[in-house]
């Protein structure tokens, strides 16, 4: 057999050909599924470094990806053990939205953004209707397939929506995409936190720079509220009961005029859509269904066909 | 590529306004004098001259920030304004650049628009050629193939002139065509001019409307704010007045009447505010309605059939109707209703009243949705049929 990395026990079905990346708890290889010749990615979880068993995020990833099959959620093809390492066989996705946003040689249109938002929201909607919170949505975790389809990936922080009395940790989601209730340290948040992240991603796609880039957790609040107004008890009941609320500087919410000035190219409906997702009060924030039903998707221009969206290289 | 389109649009608008045929400056041997030993020729190498310095008089932008550079479409050598005045005021003279023997005229000098001389030159050539070859699809009775051939021909001429291939031959072609089609060219110029005016008018109109809309919106925002403040003050004032008069009435009924009064006062002030809803708001509604019916704005109207038709044409006839959920959606998003009076859940009620739950966005319907879905998931069970 041509590859040395394979398990001697099982039939050699998956090969690892090239190392493409390494994270804190996994190494990712590019490979081929032998029986079909399909390109795949193999995520090898480093078990050896965790003496007390598997890393939590690996378990989460397996747990939720196994359950979900959707066009806009990354596909977990198989799982196998080799040399005491857990290996996840995932669909191979060459690029992600972060790369596309940063690659200044790529020009994308409002129709392309609409198409990306549509696919992202379909993926998120699928998670939510299966009662799964993703909890780490960001451009870097929205992978793009060779034919332009967005796949929600990295379920390392995902979890099922808890029973009502259970506490959740508020230390989730990459800082810039963190919803205000998480910034306040809420312990009983809902799927609305994922929608906030999608809203910030939408703004970032239009601006092509991060929309709310806080330097640290305190600064993140400052940046968020300066851009979108400090919430008050009036539009978000009991917000002042959060411990960190009292030290806040009160900023007025932005007028439509200010938002329009910031997002020059956005249509009225696009702005409405964005403010729906970036509503401070999680109860009033749009759900994935409301987002998908937005006028924004109905108006001109129609979302680009995914295969026609420009990709890097 | 984007550069090219930018250049093209400038030309299109430029030919629209120019009004007359841009006369072809003569090139070739006819006008050039052979004396390259003119006293005007300055000895320097222009290749590595500073970008912000006039190579003739060495004035640079650092010392005189107002310096303006001009070029002449004959040779595209950059010369500062004062040098142009000095050298060419007395009539045509030779280009002061060393080894350049073109004779230049002052009135042909112009400011350079593009940084790259190559682009500048091509744009000028295009402007000239399109001034002559100014047919459009209508002149071919909509025959797309013939029109494309014609465009191809025009591009070839531009390319040849730009790259100096068969210049004399091409210039003659251009001239012949101009002679032969004088009438058509002139009428097309008229038409383009009209189209351009139309376009400008439309732009102006749209801009005005947008501005008006924005003004109204801002006005509404401000009025809302001042209304709110007025209401606050009014309530306080009236209550203050009421309590002073109330103190005169009997003490026993005072407390209840004050409460009633307070409610009344707040209500009445609120209703006056509602009535006050400004004329600006009405104007904005009117404007919106007007804009929706306006053909100029149809492109922003999602329901415009024209657009869908256009889209269908562009994308080869059939368009799959857009579905936000890609056809994958629960037909009945909610399969249950909650009878608050009949169903008493002390466990959830407790949570519902806790501050930290309210603030986190906790919702009981999410909980019910989840537990009921999970309870009946995969059973193919419809409760209404079971009962």
From TrEMBL, chain A:
Record-listed ATP binding positions: 20-28, 43
Keyword annotations from UniProtKB, A to Z: ATP-binding, Kinase, Nucleotide-binding, Phosphoprotein, Serine/threonine-protein kinase, Transferase
EC number: 2.7.11.23
PROSITE patterns listed in its UniProt record: PROTEIN_KINASE_ATP, PROTEIN_KINASE_DOM, PROTEIN_KINASE_ST
Biological process according to GO: 7-methylguanosine mRNA capping; cellular response to nitrogen starvation; nucleotide-excision repair; positive regulation of Atg1/ULK1 kinase complex assembly; positive regulation of autophagy; positive regulation of transcription elongation by RNA polymerase II; positive regulation of transcription initiation by RNA polymerase II; transcription by RNA polymerase I
MF-aspect GO terms: ATP binding; cyclin-dependent protein serine/threonine kinase activity; RNA polymerase II CTD heptapeptide repeat S5 kinase activity; RNA polymerase II general transcription initiation factor activity
Annotated active site: 136
Keyword Methyltransferase attributed: no
Gene Ontology annotations for the cellular component aspect, listed alphabetically: chromatin; cytosol; transcription factor TFIIK complex
Residue stretches making up the Protein kinase domain: 14-297
Pfam family, one: Pkinase
Family: Belongs to the protein kinase superfamily. CMGC Ser/Thr protein kinase family. CDC2/CDKX subfamily.
Protein name (Swiss-Prot/TrEMBL): [RNA-polymerase]-subunit kinase
Organism this protein belongs to: Naumovozyma dairenensis (strain ATCC 10597 / BCRC 20456 / CBS 421 / NBRC 0211 / NRRL Y-12639) (Saccharomyces dairenensis)
Lineage of source species: Eukaryota, Fungi, Dikarya, Ascomycota, Saccharomycotina
From TrEMBL, chain B:
Biological process according to GO: nucleotide-excision repair; regulation of transcription by RNA polymerase II; transcriptional start site selection at RNA polymerase II promoter
SUPFAM superfamilies: RING/U-box
Gene3D superfamilies: Zinc/RING finger domain, C3HC4 (zinc finger)
Keyword vocabulary terms for this entry: Coiled coil, Metal-binding, Nucleus, Zinc, Zinc-finger
Subcellular location: Nucleus
Classification via NCBIfam families: cdk7
Protein name in the entry: RNA polymerase II transcription factor B subunit 3
Species this chain originates from: Naumovozyma dairenensis (strain ATCC 10597 / BCRC 20456 / CBS 421 / NBRC 0211 / NRRL Y-12639) (Saccharomyces dairenensis)
